[in-house]
Amino acid sequence: MQIIRKHKIISIIVMIFLAMYLVFEITYAGYIRNIINNYILETKEFYFNSSVLNVNGKIHSINNWDGVNSYTLTIDVNNKKNEVKSTPADIEYNITYECSSNVICEVSKNHGVIRENLKTDTYQLTITPTRSFVSGEELTVKTYVTSTSPYEKTLSGTYIIGVKKSSFTYNIEDSSKEKYLILNLTNAVGFYEVEKVFGNYAVGDLIPLATYLTLSESDKEKCFSAKVTLTIPTDLIALDMTANSYLHGISESIETTSDKDVSKYTFKIDATSSEKVLFYKHDITKNYTYPIVNKQSIIGVDVELAE
């Protein structure tokens, strides 16, 4: 009996090992097959690539979603092997996606074309919740692009988006070959703080949004919900001087370089609202997307919130 039991245990161990080996072989074989297929296509001068997608499914983890507002991902594709070699033809491609439950996904287009001379193209995938998500929850979104002409090749990416409840969030939308980037700022604070005495209010008093809306314009200027200070690397990007945040910023906060480029300024963002700030890039081949592509923001963002 002991011999039978001993051999039975060994048989189970062997079967488990073989099952694990089989799974590994299938996964690894698929990985190798993708690499080989990609190599064959490149020998035909066909390059279909992306900074956020690849043939084996690139995975991204994001943890700055508020769980309430829509979240937009900007996806880029290109026809380059490097800065010297590119596909000598237009590349047409189709776009598909998979979404978690409790969210609605929309793409800015279902079909795209990478023009030979432009070498890059982009699309946006917007995720809109159908309910409020709480801190710690995650959702998974997958997107696929499949070239249809002149050859077929599929790239994909998985985004694991986590909810981190924060009163203030920001991100940068950008892609290679874009002339400008967009800084998106969102203030989720729903009230205001008094910073200059007026009426019956003292410094530090908190005012509900409904009450703030009844104040005169001069009294509103004595309150804030969020004050944001941007520090700009002027050797890399330049502020769009028509930006609303700059035109209505705090004038005494503005700092400039010897060339009169704005390097720092402060402005206010209303309660439960967002602001977009545009910057022109000196080198359009760069991709300053944050936080997906880059772990650090190229723009310094400091915020003082009403509390």
Strands, helices and their partners?
Elements: H1 2-43, E1 58-65, E2 71-78, E3 91-98, E4 103-107, E5 111-114, E6 120-129, E7 138-149, E8 153-163, E9 168-173, E10 180-187, E11 191-194, E12 206-208, H2 209-212, H3 217-220, E13 223-224, E14 226-231, E15 237-239, H4 244-247, E16 255-256, E17 262-269, E18 273-281, E19 300-305
| CATH domain fold name of the largest domain | Immunoglobulin-like
The biggest beta sheet reads:
5 strands, mixed
Radius of gyration: 26 Å
Kindly state the number of beta strands.
19
The CATH class of the largest domain is Mainly Beta
Given the C-alpha coordinates, what overall shape results? globular
Catalogue the unreliable spans: 1-6, 21-27
Number of domains: 3
- Termini separation (Å)? 74 Å
CATH superfamily of the largest domain: Immunoglobulins
Q: What's the number of helices?
A: 4
Strand composition percent: 35-45%
**CATH architectural arrangement of the largest domain:** Sandwich
User: By helix and strand content, what is the structural category?
Assistant: alpha+beta
Element order: H for helix, E for strand: HEEEEEEEEEEEEHHEEEHEEEE
As a percent range, the share of helical residues equals 10-25%
Provide the residue-averaged pLDDT.
Answer: 89
Strand order of the largest sheet: 1-8-7-3-5
